[in-house]
Amino acid sequence: MFTETSKPRLRDRVLRSALVSVLTGPHGVDRYTELVEPTWTLGDARAKIVAVRRDTPRSVTLTLESNAVFTQRGTLAAGQHVNLTVEVDGRRRTRCYSPANAENDRLIELTVGVHDGGLVSGHLHRNARPGMVVGLEAVGGDFVLPAERPKRILFVSGGSGITPVLAMLRTLVAERHTDQDGAEIAFIHYARTPADACYADQLAAMTGVRVLHGFTRGGSGDLVGRFDADHLALAMPNPDSVFVCGPPALVEAVRRHCPDARSESFVPPVFAAPTAASGGTVTFAQSGVEITDDGRSLLEQAEAAGLTPESGCRMGICHTCTRRKTSGAVKNLITGAVSTSDGEDVQICVTAPVGDVALAL
Ligand SMILES: Cc1cc2nc3c(=O)[nH]c(=O)nc-3n(C[C@H](O)[C@H](O)[C@H](O)COP(=O)(O)OP(=O)(O)OC[C@H]3O[C@@H](n4cnc5c(N)ncnc54)[C@H](O)[C@@H]3O)c2cc1C
Ligand code: FES
User: Fold this and answer.
1) Which ligand 2 atom minimizes the distance to the CA of 96?
2) 58: Cβ below 6 Å to ligand 1?
3) Fewer CB atoms inside 10 A, N or C side of the chain?
4) Which residues contact ligand 2 via a Cβ below 6 A?
5) Can you tell me which atom of ligand 2 is nearest the CA of 349?
6) pLDDT per residue over 125-175, tens digit each?
7) Do 124 and 168 reside in the same domain of the chain?
8) Is any atom of ligand 1 closer than 6 Å to the C-beta of 116?
9) Residue pLDDT, tens place only, 98-132
10) Which domain CATH number covers 296?
């Protein structure tokens, strides 16, 4: 995805040398190099914001230049997501975002929709500016185009759910997908009003893509009302593949008409909150902390106990919070499945204790 120049390779060799390690111990070289250039690190994947756009009243689009550590950790396919970390009021906060750029672009583009009362989205919308440095980890995800591209593809998105499907669309456009015989692409985007429609100008400028807009709270678009059989027929009857990302109601509506549609939603699945605290002892072994289970997820209980385990989506998608359960029974809050095996990895954001549990945390 990214090419490394010889200059950073030489610099990295010098920084990794035993002499530099001795000179900079015990803090590590990153704590010194970041004073000169915050993205110049050996261990921390970071990115610098190089451009900021506020194209709609409720979104902010960031263009990021990642450091070598990020690029060395692998490539991202269109549709996958990253974990972005920012400091808000002195605490590091991490959230998942799906880049909207085509898969081989050098720069990463994130569009963040503002959530009323949302911590990170509100912070970025208010404060993001060129020069700001953020933490960035490539995470992954399986909402991606198949290696063998289907011929006739329909993309459907709602609100900020446009990002992963736009990344797929931009990738196909770069591949000149529609130059092939029988290949077609249609793109439906739903927004509250025309002013809220992200990427409207960029979509309008794409040749060979049938773009339709629907507005759910006012303004007349190409489509009236919510996704239904008429919208499907207008966009692309009988597509080979459908990709949808947006609020759960949109995903469900698309699935009713296209049962094989691949989907992603940024909204948490409905959690089956445990009916009662088990009262068991939860041991965070590495921290030497023991608490009595209060019924919440292991992540929330660890945070309440003053620990700061890594987390991203906090809804069982990104695996950032995965920790080794060394003993005890736990319940998956999404599936309701109880698991008792020792030595298994659990996503602590969607896992609650069922009795005594010991965790490597
Ligand atoms: C795989 C994946 C990809 C994603 N990609 C994108 C993307 O490309 N673009 C994008 O915009 N988003 C994306 N998201 C969503 C993103 O990760 C965040 O969830 C989103 O930005 C909201 O974060 P926040 O910190 O602003 O909100 P949070 O502070 O985490 O709050 C989340 C919600 O809870 C509400 N809330 C917070 N506190 C309270 C309270 N006390 N009482 C009641 N409600 C409250 C907020 O209003 C908000 O709606 C993605 C999510 C996933 C899982
Ligand atoms: S924080 Fe993403 S899976 Fe737990």
Assistant:
1) 2
2) no
3) N
4) 311-314, 316-321, 347, 349
5) 4
6) 999 999 999 999 877 889 999 999 999 999 999 999 999 999 999 999 999
7) no
8) yes
9) 999 999 899 999 999 999 999 999 999 999 999 99
10) 3.10.20.30
* Lowest-confidence segment of 70-79, 195-204, 228-237, 321-330 by average pLDDT: 70-79
Residue 89 CA to ligand 2 centre (angstroms): 22
What is the C-alpha to C-alpha distance for residues 297 and 279, in angstroms, rounded to an integer? 13
> 301 C-alpha vs ligand 2 centroid, how far in Å?
15
Point out the ligand nearest to the CA of residue 302. Answer: 2
Length of the chain: 361
The CB of 157 under 6 Å from ligand 1? The reply is: no
CB–CB of 107/67 below 8 Å? no
**Count of structural domains, the chain:** 3
State which amino acid sits at residue 166. L
Residue 96 CA to ligand 1 centre (angstroms)? 9
Q: Which residues contact 102 (CB under 8 A, 6 or more apart)?
A: 78, 167, 170, 171, 173, 174
116 Cα nearest atom in ligand 1: 47
Burial class (CB in 10 A: 0-12, 13-18, 19+), 75: exposed
Domain assignment of residue 336, given as a range: 281-359
Q: Is residue 121 lining ligand 1, measured as CB closer than 6 Å?
A: yes
CATH assignment at residue 178: 3.40.50.80
Single out the residue of 133, 139, 143, 134 nearest to residue 163, CA to CA: 143
Listed residues 85, 106, 140: the one ending a domain = 140
